[in-house]
Structures are given as structure tokens and as C-alpha cells.
Design a protein that fits this description.
The protein has one helix at residues 3-21, and strands spanning 22-29, 37-44, 49-50, 56-59, 63-68, 74-79, 87-93, 99-106, 112-117, 123-128, 138-143, 155-157, 174-179, 185-190, 195-201, 210-212, 216-217, 224-229, 235-240, 245-252, 255-263, 275-280, 286-291, 297-303, 310-317, 323-328, 334-339, 344-350, 357-365, 369-374. Residues 7-18 have low confidence and may be disordered. The protein has 2 domains: 43-52 and 271-375, YVTN repeat-like/Quinoprotein amine dehydrogenase (Methylamine Dehydrogenase, Chain H); 60-263, Methylamine Dehydrogenase, Chain H (7 Propeller), CATH 2.130.10. The strands form 7 sheets. Strands 1, 2, 3, 4 and 30 form a 5-stranded antiparallel beta sheet that branches. Strands 13, 14, 15, 16 and 17 form a 5-stranded antiparallel beta sheet that branches. Strand 20 and strand 21 (255-263) form a beta hairpin. The longest helix is centred in the first third of the chain and has 19 residues, at 3-21. It has 1 helix and 30 strands. GO terms for molecular function: 6-phosphogluconolactonase activity. It comes from Pseudomonas tructae. Belongs to the cycloisomerase 2 family. Residues 1-22 form the signal peptide.
């Protein structure tokens, strides 16, 4: 073998190794300050470092939540604006990871804060939070065409509020919307109603793909926020923002049956109760939950593989203020936190075997980060 051929083989091998370590990280944000919108960074899964200089910056107003298509060729971002200006944007993702704007449509509500795609990728379900009690929040259904462009909303639902908390529950506030693992049911968590509303999905009905079935009642004043299904679709987990709790459910055919409800803080002051995001590890063995407010913590729970019940194994500071979202990197060796109000992304080391969070690897300055998504 010639020296030139050996050098080419070595260079090729090194390129493959570096490629396997590098991942595109998308960051959504709020743009009232210096942030311009959506940022694309390079993350090294060997070192746990985000390269400080973004690969790309897309100007977009308040793209607070990002949704990727299953094939990772499309990105959807809610534009969390009020005053009748709530919108949703669509982007194409090229093979090199670069983003190109496709179109933008009204979300048919104020402050859209979350979205998800139907199981068949034909519709984008949008949670309009609606800060003002009138008209309040709503669930909106937007078709997606074959090119990835969003179409005008074909269906909206507005729920009745519980009225328990006179400051936060005099109107509906849909905070998230997700589908069951088989896509047959859609679940909208409404903080203002103290319910998770359940809908049957029928993609063959283009004008009315959703039909309401019996909702799930939660404790008065608890404020449901985000719902997550496990990889087998047998259990689900829900954060209750206002009571700072996490709920474990059994799941069967559109029915959520409560198994367990655990507190995220022992503090009684309302300022320490602001449950936020939750995510499972890729192997389903650990659940991570954020609590914002004055607590600013991440809690780690071990998941019983048979019952789905939770056992707390760690409580860790996020080393910042208001961890709105977080994500685990593709290797499971790191957890990244979007600390919205302290304007940083914090990278923590993670032990994939024990699930425990370790030392802080990096603190990257980023104005008002709100969501983190790995593309590859």
C-alpha cells in the first residue's frame, strides 16, 4: 500500500469520526432583546462543547418552540406573538443542515407556545396559549402540504376555563399538544382548564381531523403543561406547572389512568412552583423534569420498567434562571439546558448508566433561549 493511499485512508477515517461526533443543534428563542430568532450551532458529542459561533442565524420573531418532521427535512417554529399576530413558520432543512424559509401562516390564536405533527405528518397541531383571558388560548390544526408549506387552519378548539386561580385560570391556556404513539389520539394540556383534552384523530377527514372524546380531569388549580409518552406507548408523564408536580399515567386506547403524583419541590411558596419541561432518556430508564421559579432545578427520576412508576434519584441546580427547556444529546452523555432569563445554554455531563447529572461542561451566552432540538 502506497504512503499516499495510507494517508487518504487515515484522513477519511478521521473525517468519519469527526462527523459522528458533530451534531447540528437548533435553538429557538424570544426576540424582545438581542436575539434574532433561530440559531444553528455545531455540538461536539465527544467534548460536550457547543461551538460559540453559530453556523446560521435565521431572523424570526419569537420562535419559542421548534418541531422537526420525522425525516428531519422540515422544521416548524411557532412565533409566540400576541395581539392577534400569533403565527407559525415552516423551513426546509438541506442535506448540509442549512435552513431555508418556506412560508408563514397565522396560528389562529395568540401566543402559540407549542406544536407537534400528526403521526402521518399531514397536520401541525398548534397550542395557542393566549395570555389574555378573552379570547384565551386554543388548539389549532394546520395542514402541511407535500412541500412542507403550512396551510390555513382547518379546525380550532377553545376550552372552558376552570376559574380556580383568578389570576391565571379565567381563560383557557392550551400549553402543549401531543399524539399517542400510534397517532390515533391527540392530547391538549390546558393550564387554564385543569384538564388534558383528548381528541380522536382521523386523517381521512381533511376538514375536521379531530373529534373530541372524554377529557382527563386534573386537581383544581394544578395547571397542566407538558405531556410525554414513553417509547412503548404504555405510560405517559405530565407536568403540572402551578402545583409543581409530575404525574405518571397508565395509557390504554385514549385513556390516561393516574398511577402516581409526585412533588417537584418541598417549598410551599408559589414562587418556587413552576414545573416546566420533561424528557425521557433514549432507553426510557430515566425521566428528567425542570422546575423554574425560584427553584431553578432539574429532577431526575428512575422509571420502573414494569409499572412506569417514578422514583426520585437526584435534584440538581440548573445554574441559571428559568430553565424553559432542555434536551439530551444524541449520545446520552450530556444534557443541555435553555436558561431563558439568565441568557445561557448550560451543558451538564450525564452518566448514561446511572442517569445522574454531573459537572458543568459549558455555559454559552445566548439571549433568551427557549427551545433546543438536535437535528441529526
Amino acid at each position: 500500500m502506497t504512503r499516499l493511499l495510507k494517508n487518504l485512508l487515515i484522513a477519511s477515517s478521521m473525517s468519519l469520526i469527526l462527523s459522528a461526533q458533530a451534531h447540528d443543534l437548533l435553538v429557538g428563542s424570544y426576540t424582545a432583546g438581542s436575539s434574532e430568532g433561530i440559531y444553528r450551532y455545531r455540538f461536539n458529542s465527544d467534548s460536550g462543547q457547543i461551538e460559540p459561533t453559530p453556523l446560521q442565524v435565521l431572523k424570526s420573531e419569537n420562535p419559542s418552540w421548534l418541531t422537526l418532521s420525522v425525516d428531519r427535512r422540515l422544521l416548524f417554529a411557532v412565533n409566540e406573538n400576541g395581539g392577534g399576530n400569533g403565527q407559525v413558520s415552516s423551513f426546509a432543512i438541506a442535506k448540509d443542515g442549512s435552513l431555508k424559509a418556506l412560508n408563514q401562516v397565522p396560528s389562529q390564536g395568540d401566543e402559540p407556545t407549542h406544536s407537534s405533527l400528526s403521526h402521518d405528518q399531514r397536520y401541525l397541531f398548534v397550542a395557542n396559549y393566549g395570555v389574555q383571558p378573552a379570547p384565551g388560548g386554543s388548539l389549532s390544526v394546520l395542514p402541511v402540504d407535500r412541500q412542507g408549506r403550512l396551510q390555513a387552519s382547518v379546525q380550532q378548539y377553545r376550552h372552558a376555563p376552570s376559574g380556580v386561580d383568578p389570576q391565571r385560570q379565567t381563560g383557557p391556556h392550551v400549553h402543549s399538544v401531543v399524539s399517542s404513539d400510534n397517532g390515533k389520539y391527540v392530547f391538549a394540556s390546558d393550564l387554564g382548564a385543569d384538564k388534558v383534552f383528548v381528541y380522536r384523530y382521523d386523517g381521512a377527514s381533511p376538514s375536521q381531523p379531530l373529534s373530541a372524546v372524554e377529557p382527563v380531569d386534573l386537581p383544581p388549580g394544578s395547571g397542566p403543561r407538558h405531556l410525554l409518552f414513553d417509547r412503548d406507548g404504555k405510560h405517559a408523564y405530565l407536568t403540572l406547572e402551578m402545583s409543581a408536580q409530575v404525574v405518571a399515567f397508565d395509557y390504554r386506547n385514549g385513556k390516561l389512568l393516574e398511577l402516581q403524583r409526585l412533588p417537584l419541590t418541598e417549598q410551599t411558596d408559589a414562587s418556587a412552583k413552576a414545573a416546566g419541561a420533561l424528557h425521557l432518556s433514549a432507553d426510557g430508564r430515566f425521566l428528567y423534569v425542570s422546575n423554574r421559579g425560584t427553584a431553578n432545578e432539574l429532577l431526575v427520576f428512575a422509571v420502573d420498567d414494569k409499572t412506569g412508576k417514578l422514583m426520585q434519584v437526584q435534584r440538581r441546580s440548573v445554574e441559571g434562571d428559568h430553565p424553559r427547556e432542555f434536551t439530551l444529546d444524541p449520545t446520552g452523555k450530556f444534557l443541555l439546558v435553555a436558561n431563558q432569563k439568565s441568557n445561557q445554554i448550560v451543558v451538564l455531563r450525564r452518566d448514561p448508566r446511572t442517569g445522574l447529572l454531573g459537572d458543568t461542561v459549558q455555559k454559552l451566552a445566548q439571549d433568551a433561549p427557549s427551545d433546543l432540538k438536535f437535528v441529526n
